[in-house]
C-alpha cells in the first residue's frame, strides 16, 4: 500500500484557476494523493467564479487582493503569507501554473522551504523582460526553481534546454487550458449579452500592464474606427476589473451603440462568446491558446508573444498596439472571406485535452509510487 503524498495546488488569478482545475481534478481522482488547494486570491471575484464553475472549493484562502495593488506590495504580501502556509501544511510537493506574481512567489517560498516545486505551463518565453511585464521575469524565476517543468510544446522545451535546465526535468504535456476548454466547450451556454445575431461579433479583451496608458488608448481608437467602417459588426468587450483598464475603456468606448462594454464574463459564457465570434482581438495569453482550438482568427495586440506556435501555423497574427495597424489587419479579415477562412482552421498547437493526466502520471512515477496491484479474492 502506497503512502499518500501531499500535493499543494496554488491558484491566484482567473487563468490559474482555469488551467489548474484539470490538474486538481485529476490529482483528486488518484488513489495515492492527498490534495490541498490554496487560493491566494490575488484575484478575488474572477478566481471565485472559475473555482465554482469547476466545483473546486479551496481548503485555504489567503484573500490577498487589494484594489489597484502594486507589484511590490502584492509580492511581499504573497511571499510572507505563502511561507506561513507552507510551514503549516508541510506539503510533499507544491504545484502552480503560469507566470503571475502568485506563481513566482509560490516557487520562491517553496525553494526557501526546500519543498519540490512543479511548474505547470513552463518554458514560455519572449526573451524580453519588458514584454510581457512582469510575467517574463515571473516565469524565469519560477522556471529556475522548479523540480518539474510541464511544458506545453516542443518549443517551450527548447527554451528551457537553452537555459541549461536538465532535460530529465522537462516534460512535454500540452497545455491544461485545452483540457478545461474542451470540457466547457462541449456544452452550449447562455450568453447574457445584448447582441444582435444578424451582426458579426468581434470579441475584445485587453488587460496587460505593458499596454496601460497610450497603447490601450490606441487599441480603443482602433475599435471605434472598426465599428465606424463596418456597420455589420458589433463589439463585445468584457472589461478586466483592473482600474487602469476600466477607466480608459469607459472613457473612450462607452458611447457607441455597437460597442458593448460588459463586466468580465464567467468562463462558460466567455467560451460561448469565443464560439460565436467572427474575429477576436486580445492581449490575453489564454485566449491566444483557446481561440485557435475553436477555429477563431485572433489578432494579438502586443509587440511580443510567448506563444509563437499558433502564429507559425498562421491562425494567430501579432499586430502590435498601433491603432492604424490593428484597424488595417482587422478590416482585412472582416472584408476578405478568404483571408478569414485561412485563419479559421481549428488548429490546436497547445494541447489535445490530456495534459493533466500526463502531469499526474509523471508525478506518480517520479515520487516513486508503485501501481496498485489488484489482489484476487481480496
Ligand atoms: C494578473 C497577472 C497577469 C494575468 C492576469 C490575468 C500579475 C502581476 N499579473 O494581472 O499576469 O495575465 O492577472 O487576468 O500577476 N481586480 C478586481 N477583481 C478581481 C481581479 C482583479 O477588482 O477579481 C482588480 C483589483 O483592483 C486588482 C487589480 O485588478 O488590484 C489588478 O489585479 P492583479 O492581479 O494585480 O493584476 P492583473 O492586471 O489582474
Ligand atoms: N476569460 C473569461 N472571461 C472573460 C475574459 C477571459 O473567462 O471575460 C478567460 C479566457 O477564456 C481565458 C482566461 O480567462 O481562459 C484568460 O485570462 P486573462 O486574459 O485574464 O489572463 P492571461 O491568460 O492573459 O494571463
List keywords for this structure.
378 residues; alpha/beta; Rossmann fold; 2 domains; seven-stranded parallel sheet; binds uridine-5'-diphosphate
Structure description:
This protein is an alpha/beta fold and 378 residues long. It has 2 domains: 5-175 and 352-366, Rossmann fold (3-Layer(aba) Sandwich); 200-343, Rossmann fold (3-Layer(aba) Sandwich). Helix content is 45%, strand content 15%. The protein has 15 helices and 13 strands. The strands form 2 sheets. The chain has a 7-stranded parallel sheet, with helices on both faces. A 6-stranded parallel sheet has the order 10-9-8-11-12-13, sandwiched between helices. Strand 1, helix 1 and strand 2 form a beta-alpha-beta unit. Helix 8 packs parallel to helix 13. Residues 14-15, 18, 205, 207, 238, 264-265, 267, 270, 284-287, 290 line the site of uridine-5'-diphosphate.
Amino acid at each position: 500500500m502506497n503512502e499518500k503524498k501531499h500535493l499543494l495546488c496554488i491558484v491566484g488569478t482567473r487563468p490559474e484557476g482555469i488551467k489548474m482545475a484539470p490538474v486538481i481534478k485529476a490529482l483528486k481522482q488518484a488513489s495515492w494523493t492527498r490534495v490541498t488547494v490554496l487560493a491566494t486570491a490575488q484575484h478575488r471575484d474572477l478566481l471565485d467564479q472559475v473555482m465554482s464553475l469547476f466545483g473546486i472549493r479551496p481548503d485555504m484562502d489567503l484573500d490577498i487582493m487589494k484594489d489597484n495593488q502594486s507589484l511590490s506590495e502584492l509580492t511581499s504580501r504573497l511571499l510572507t503569507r505563502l511561507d506561513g502556509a507552507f510551514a503549516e501544511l508541510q506539503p510533499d510537493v507544491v504545484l502552480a501554473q503560469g507566470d503571475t506574481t502568485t506563481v513566482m512567489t509560490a516557487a520562491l517560498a517553496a525553494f526557501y522551504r526546500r519543498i519540490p516545486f512543479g511548474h505547470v505551463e513552463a518554458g514560455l518565453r519572449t526573451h524580453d523582460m519588458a514584454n510581457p511585464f512582469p510575467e517574463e521575469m515571473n516565469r524565469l524565476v519560477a522556471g529556475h526553481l522548479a523540480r518539474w517543468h510541464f511544458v506545453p510544446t516542443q518549443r517551450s522545451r527548447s527554451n528551457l534546454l537553452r537555459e541549461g535546465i536538465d532535460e530529465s526535468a522537462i516534460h512535454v504535456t500540452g497545455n491544461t487550458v485545452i483540457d478545461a476548454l474542451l470540457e466547457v466547450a462541449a456544452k452550449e451556454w447562455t450568453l447574457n449579452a445584448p447582441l444582435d445575431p444578424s451582426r458579426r461579433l468581434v470579441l475584445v479583451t485587453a488587460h496587460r500592464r505593458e499596454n496601460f496608458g497610450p497603447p490601450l488608448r490606441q487599441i480603443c481608437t482602433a475599435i471605434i474606427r472598426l465599428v465606424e467602417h463596418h456597420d455589420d459588426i458589433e463589439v463585445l468587450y468584457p472589461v478586466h476589473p483592473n482600474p487602469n483598464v476600466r477607466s480608459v475603456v469607459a472613457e473612450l468606448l462607452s458611447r457607441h451603440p455597437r460597442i458593448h462594454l460588459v463586466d468580465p464574463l464567467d468562463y462558460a459564457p466567455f467560451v460561448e462568446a469565443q464560439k460565436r465570434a467572427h474575429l477576436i482581438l486580445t492581449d490575453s495569453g489564454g485566449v491566444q491558446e483557446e481561440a485557435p482550438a475553436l477555429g477563431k482568427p485572433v489578432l494579438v495586440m502586443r509587440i511580443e508573444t510567448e506563444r509563437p506556435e499558433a502564429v507559425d501555423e498562421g491562425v494567430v497574427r501579432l499586430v502590435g498596439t498601433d491603432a492604424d495597424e490593428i484597424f488595417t489587419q482587422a478590416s482585412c479579415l472582416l472584408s476578405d472571406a478568404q483571408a478569414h477562412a485561412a485563419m479559421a482552421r481549428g488548429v490546436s498547437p497547445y494541447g489535445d485535452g490530456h495534459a493533466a493526466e500526463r502531469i499526474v502520471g509523471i508525478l506518480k512515477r517520479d515520487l516513486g509510487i508503485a501501481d496498485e496491484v489488484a489482489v484476487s479474492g481480496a
